[in-house]
């Protein structure tokens, strides 16, 4: 609110555009000086004058989609769910956030095609995560309302949101600690579902086995696993960092630059193809694939 802004205005008539400097940021009306004009014509009359600018809050509603597919084989009573959000913020293409996770789970689905898993594997590409986890929330609420038994059939949920950050860390969701800040479930605040610790351990075990350092990141519900842990479904996942700043210790562990954001282009127009560290994304995709295969074969570590 109250931020100073430069506004390019355009009346829609040829030549009717110019530049004003003023304070905007909230709905309302301000009168501001005209500081420059790009065309003469009618607007030339405004040079050195003032214009009144009105900012309004506009809302729109639009439809979004979840795309869900499931293996044709395996125990449907013990399903391993794997998800990534397919939408981005309007500011940019969202290639790291979250083309990276979406591509990773697509690669895993392709690799599974034609194989037979012990458990069913169900993939979800979520819509509208950036508008408040809307897609995953809808999915879980819909099952709760219409087919509660099918929630019981989900043994665990694995989430991949931002796994190709240019200045990446190799972070695993911290499933052996309480979700913080607490996630609200139907019966009040929830803590990390018990099996989440085993999922975290499975990721660290994979990284250890290939000689890569791994760290931990908040298990706060700030992505599509939130609605699942709110239902008590053990969950986990990977993350290479967003707007946070890489520490000196993390740079020693993972490489990259200390004092710089993991993803400088987080939620920005520059989150384009050049914003992904391909090698990092491959390491994270391999880890995701290894953990999906492990639980597709057995979820005993998670549910005892
Ligand atoms: N969900 C966040 C987004 O899409 C990214 C994020 C994931 C941030 C996990 C923190 C932890 O913008
Ligand atoms: Zn985002
Ligand atoms: Zn995201
Ligand atoms: Zn931990």
UniProtKB/TrEMBL annotation:
Query: What is a biological process (GO) this protein takes part in?
Result: proteolysis
Q: Which residues form the Peptidase M28 domain?
A: 66-291
Enumerate the UniProt keywords alphabetically: Hydrolase, Signal
Q: Which GO terms describe its molecular function?
A: metalloexopeptidase activity
What is the protein named?
A: M20/M25/M40 family metallo-hydrolase
Q: Which residues of the full protein are shown?
A: 188 to 491 of 528
